[in-house]
């Protein structure tokens, strides 16, 4: 997240640094959305979905969280920082995930795969018919914004599937370590074949000489100039190939994180501390970007990037020594307590 928002521009950094910065774009937010799905599964019973009163209370907590995130995301957006705030979209994702809460891992995985294909196709068809293409309000959150639910729900649902399996099992971890790279290869490799071997690039260039350059931009939505736009896999392009590739990277990161926590837990304490208060870290970094007057993202120096990382890690580590939850996490937990009244 920090690399994507306050890291050097990949186009100007060049070399190894540029490659690392480019890798963060699109894939970091996809990982963020996938982990949101994991959190939904953890809140609703892990491997065994909660039912009866416990299930209804869990759903009520999710609704309360969703409403708060919608409001918080709207406020952060109104600050007019250069960050494309994802928090409000999170609220929408949570609400849309409610009908899926009681599904098990296999059904969730099938649903995610279906949405990864159907969502981009529906986005292309609907947005091709829209004139003009609105990007505000509910339409933006669902269809035309930077993180539209129609093409981002596959990440959330796939994350729910991850949260429904036994992540402590060596066999499960091994399967994830194989599945992640396979999906990444399917997404990015499949896109390359479609573009470079089967004529996709020529089809795009036939529409416009600079079509490929436009599609490489991080608009958040599927391009509508040509059906061939569905063949690209650039960050935030919202195509089936991009979803598969970014999800594969997300699953690979999860598998590597599980392995790392098992073997070098103490060395990861600062990272774990930040993860335990991710909402606070996210909101804090948006406020910091506004306070520092950073206007162009990406673009700041490597020093700014490491400053954000070090300050956040240090603050989170010190905070966790004193308190169980981050400040915003604590407030969010208090706000969801009325859910216990549901019967």
Main beta-sheet annotation: none
Low-confidence blocks of residues: none
Gyration radius (Cα, Å) is 20 Å
Q: Tally the helices.
A: 17
Total domain modules: 1
Helix/strand-derived category reads mainly alpha
Distance between the termini: 39 Å
Amount of helix? 55-70%
* Average pLDDT rating: 90
What does this structure look like?
The structure is a single chain. With 343 residues, this protein is mainly alpha-helical. It has one domain. It has 17 helices and no strands. The chain is globular and about 60 Å long. The mean pLDDT is 90.
Helix and strand arrangement:
Layout: H1 2-6, H2 10-13, H3 15-24, H4 27-43, H5 52-78, H6 87-97, H7 105-129, H8 137-144, H9 149-164, H10 170-197, H11 200-207, H12 211-215, H13 240-263, H14 269-276, H15 278-291, H16 302-322, H17 327-335
Short description:
The protein has 17 helices and no strands. With 343 residues, it is mainly alpha-helical.
Any key phrases for this structure?
70% helix; 17 helices; mainly alpha
């Amino acid at each position: 997240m920090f690399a994507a928002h306050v890291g050097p521009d990949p186009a100007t950094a060049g070399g190894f640094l540029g490659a690392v910065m480019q890798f963060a774009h699109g894939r970091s937010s996809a990982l963020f959305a996938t982990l949101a799905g994991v959190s939904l599964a953890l809140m609703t019973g892990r491997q065994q979905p909660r039912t009866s009163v416990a299930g209804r209370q869990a759903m009520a907590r999710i609704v309360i969280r969703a409403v708060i995130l919608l409001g918080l995301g709207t406020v952060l957006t109104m600050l007019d920082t250069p960050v494309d705030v994802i928090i409000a979209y999170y609220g929408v994702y949570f609400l849309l995930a409610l009908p899926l809460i009681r599904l098990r891992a296999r059904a969730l995985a099938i649903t995610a795969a279906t949405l990864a294909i159907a969502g981009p196709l529906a986005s292309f068809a609907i947005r091709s018919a829209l004139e003009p293409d609105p990007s505000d309000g509910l339409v933006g959150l669902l269809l035309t914004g930077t993180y539209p639910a129609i093409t981002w729900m596959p990440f959330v649902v796939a994350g729910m599937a991850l949260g429904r399996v036994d992540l402590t099992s060596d066999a499960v971890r091994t399967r994830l370590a194989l599945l992640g790279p396979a999906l990444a290869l399917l997404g990015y490799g499949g896109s390359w074949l479609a573009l470079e071997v089967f004529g996709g690039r020529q089809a795009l260039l036939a529409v416009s000489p600079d079509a490929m350059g436009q599609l490489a931009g991080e608009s958040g939505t599927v391009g509508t100039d040509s059906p061939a736009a569905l063949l690209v896999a650039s960050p935030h392009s919202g195509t089936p190939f991009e979803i598969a590739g970014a999800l594969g990277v997300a699953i690979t990161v999860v598998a590597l994180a599980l392995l790392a926590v098992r073997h070098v837990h103490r060395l990861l304490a600062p990272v774990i501390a930040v993860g335990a208060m991710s909402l606070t870290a996210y909101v804090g970094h948006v406020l910091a970007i506004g306070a520092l007057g950073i206007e162009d993202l990406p673009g700041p120096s490597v020093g700014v990037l490491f400053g954000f990382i070090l300050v956040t890690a240090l603050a989170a580590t010190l905070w966790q020594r004193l308190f169980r939850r981050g400040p915003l996490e604590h407030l969010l937990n208090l706000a969801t307590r009325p859910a216990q009244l549901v019967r």
